[in-house]
Design brief:
Rossmann fold; alpha/beta; elongated; 10 helices; about 300 residues; binds NADPH dihydro-nicotinamide-adenine-dinucleotide phosphate; 2 domains; binds oxalic acid; seven-stranded parallel beta sheet
Length: about 300
């Protein structure tokens, strides 16, 4: 029997995904799942936040491929079968986008361009003598597919860079800290904090008053991972107190960010709508297709989520 694929990603336009998948698997049957229509059992699913009903209708799946790097949304579903292997996107074109975004956010702050922008909006002409790079040691939380590329990009921009990960990592030009016991030392060496951790039970609410207070002041926060890493009220209070100079936030506890959220009214916070590194469809489909081909040949693949660790 030919390969059977099912695509279920509410909010995504299915047609280009199906077209790209068909280019890799011309003989496969590729269905777009719908709650109303009949669902043919498939071998592999390509998904983003599928509804709970999806899993019950797909009892023959050998793996589900998440079309993003973060699997926190997928793992939250109580309907997700415990034995179903989940595979996440590993870079697939997102890392250079993330590196660009983070470097611009860090440089914008460390060169004082955020202050100049605010001055100019207030019709104030004030030449800004920006500080030395060495005054702004950058710490990257997470040194995985995205964090490691971001750290290298910051090193290339001559920043002093540290990374924090669960297991020890070697990134040329950056200092590595590993494990919970090393977090305080990492924070004490960091003024600009970049978050690229997955959202797991261990990392949820990690960016709270206790953690952010340990950064070198005045600190700066760039959160490009998940909104639930950050305790919003603690960040706002630390900005008001002057311990944190400001933040660039791309992700939020609730998305879209509610119109009444206090972040909108804090001029020292720069907001973007979860766009720091959007999924690159062509590269993602090519990566998924390569992994399906390997699984079909009985080979191992990378990017399989460890359900216990949560990423
Ligand atoms: P990876 O799984 O490749 O890397 C995760 C890193 O975090 C690893 O270095 C891992 O350590 C480290 N880590 C995980 N848990 C802990 C912990 N408890 N303590 C210390 N370190 C820990 O993920 P990616 O780099 O691909 O993606 C990171 C996140 O970025 C995603 O989960 C997603 O939430 C977010 N994202 C946001 C996007 C956006 O547009 N805003 C786009 C894409 C992703 P170790 O290496 O030892 O395993
Ligand atoms: C992802 C994201 O996890 O887009 O890939 O946030």
């Amino acid at each position: 029997m030919s390969l059977r694929l099912v695509f279920c990603a509410p909010g995504f336009k299915a047609e280009p995904w199906v077209r790209d998948l068909a280019a890799h698997f011309p003989d496969a049957t590729i269905d777009v799942w719908s709650a109303d229509g009949p669902s043919t059992p498939a071998d592999y699913a390509i998904v983003w936040s599928p509804p709970d009903a999806f899993y019950a209708s797909q009892p023959t799946l050998k793996a589900a491929f998440n079309v993003g790097a973060g699997v926190d949304g997928l793992l939250r579903s109580k309907a997700l079968p415990t034995a179903l292997p989940i595979v996440r996107v590993e870079d697939a074109g997102m890392a250079p986008l993330m590196a660009e975004y983070v470097v611009q956010a860090v440089v914008r702050h460390t060169r004082g361009l955020d202050t100049s922008e605010a001055d100019m909006r207030a019709r104030k002409w004030r030449t800004n003598r920006s500080g030395d790079r060495s005054d702004y040691p950058v710490g990257v939380l997470g040194a995985g597919a995205l964090g490691s590329v971001v750290a290298r990009a910051l090193v290339a921009q001559r920043f002093t860079v540290s990374v924090w990960s669960r297991s020890p990592k070697r990134i040329e030009g950056a200092r590595g800290y590993a494990g919970a016991a090393a977090l305080d030392d990492f924070l004490a060496a960091t003024r600009v904090l970049v978050n690229l951790l997955p959202l797991t039970p261990d990392t949820e609410d990690l960016l709270d008053r206790a953690t952010l207070s340990k950064l070198i002041a005045p600190a700066y926060v760039v959160n490009v991972a998940r909104g639930r890493h950050l305790v919003d009220a603690d960040l706002l209070a630390l900005i008001a107190e002057g311990h944190v100079a400001g933040a660039t936030l791309d992700v939020f506890r609730e998305e879209p960010l509610p119109a009444t959220h206090p972040f909108w009214d804090e001029p020292r916070i720069t907001l973007t709508p979860h766009c720091s590194a959007v999924t690159q469809r062509t590269e993602t489909v090519a990566q998924i297709a390569g992994k399906i081909a390997r699984l079909q040949r009985g080979e191992e693949i990378s990017g399989v989520v460890d359900r216990v660790r949560g990423y």
